[in-house]
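User: Is it possible to get a 3D structure for a protein together with its bound compound? The compound here is nicotinamide-adenine-dinucleotide. I've pasted both below.
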Amino acid sequence: MITVDVKTGRPYRVYVGENLLKESGSLISKHVDGRVAVISDSHVAPLYLDSLIDSLRLEGIEAVSKVIPAGEKSKNIRIYEELLDFLAQESITRSDAVIALGGGVVGDIAGFTAATYLRGVPYIQIPTSLLAMVDSSVGGKTAIDLPAGKNLAGAFCQPELVICDPSVLSTLPEDIFRDGCAEVIKYGVLEDPDLFAKLTLEGIGFDRVPVITRCIDIKAAYVAEDEYDNGVRRKLNLGHTFGHAIEAVSRFSMTHGQAVAAGMCMVARASYAMGFCKQACPQGIEQCIRSFDLPVNCEMKTDELLPFIAADKKRRGDVISLIVPRTIGNCDIVPVNADDVKDWLEAGM
Ligand SMILES: NC(=O)c1ccc[n+]([C@@H]2O[C@H](COP(=O)([O-])OP(=O)(O)OC[C@H]3O[C@@H](n4cnc5c(N)ncnc54)[C@H](O)[C@@H]3O)[C@@H](O)[C@H]2O)c1
Ligand SMILES: [Zn+2]
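Assistant: Yes, that's possible. Here is the predicted structure of the complex:
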């Protein structure tokens, strides 16, 4: 078992190891005196809920559970209300805890429910998708979607601990795993040329425990330095400014990972065109992304993408912060005036 400490205002630990789910009760018992309310989804619960509950029982921890329908469509205000009602009906108190067992959807909505029920009860993340392991379970961003857009209601609230068991990825459908790989590649481009080289060489068959741990390390360092996303943490948006627009224009027929992969290649090509990096940088990123069978470009026109980039949630006034690769392992936050984004986009096509 490997541990990563996340040094936020209230620090916590991420445990990474194969078959950790079966031992999760003993890790959780160090943090919870009362009962736990497990929230999972309709794909993950049949596979892993019993194993978690058995492990909790072995430690004498009483568990109740609630299963929501799998998928992004569940990350809404109605299910959020159902989850609040569930915690209230079960008389969950502040000395109890919520456990999120699932991918990023369960993590986000269970986290937001825990952050707001009784003005906050402790919660534990047990991520089961690759994306949730390397990204959403660490860092304390919790949210639900509103009809007006994704993640529009949420709270910063760090978990008590995170238990990451890569053996559960054996049941994750391959296309969803591949999608999460875009975020893994992103960490290499941001901070780690060795990780990046390994990923380019090994592709989707990469060695899971060390790679996932390294990604969590990088995310934990950003989050510790910038818990509330005003500084270095914004680098995690690499590939996402263009990527979110690509997702939206495709009406979500392109997945998040595909759009982020294409978005990373586009911003890297633009970086070269604008004189921020050598040509080897975009070429290397494209090569790595191709080795994962992810797209290196999109079919859309700049005029289709621009309105969505202008509406970017992370825009501040007229300035959009683009995350721009300089070399593999080193990216800058470049403030780009909204009027100039078109030039960047065209340079990236
Ligand atoms: N909070 C954050 O910092 C943050 C960061 C990135 C993304 N997110 C959010 O994460 C969500 C996407 O997460 P996701 O990609 O994990 O989606 P998801 O939670 O919908 O999981 C994808 C699919 O895989 C299934 N699944 C998960 N684990 C499985 C397993 N081990 N075996 C079999 N099936 C499994 C799920 O049931 C679902 O059908 C989005 O809502 C996004 O906004 C949050
Ligand atoms: Zn992402």
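Residues 174-348 form a domain with the Dehydroquinate synthase-like, alpha domain fold (CATH 1.20.1090.10). DSSP finds 13 helices and eleven strands in the chain.
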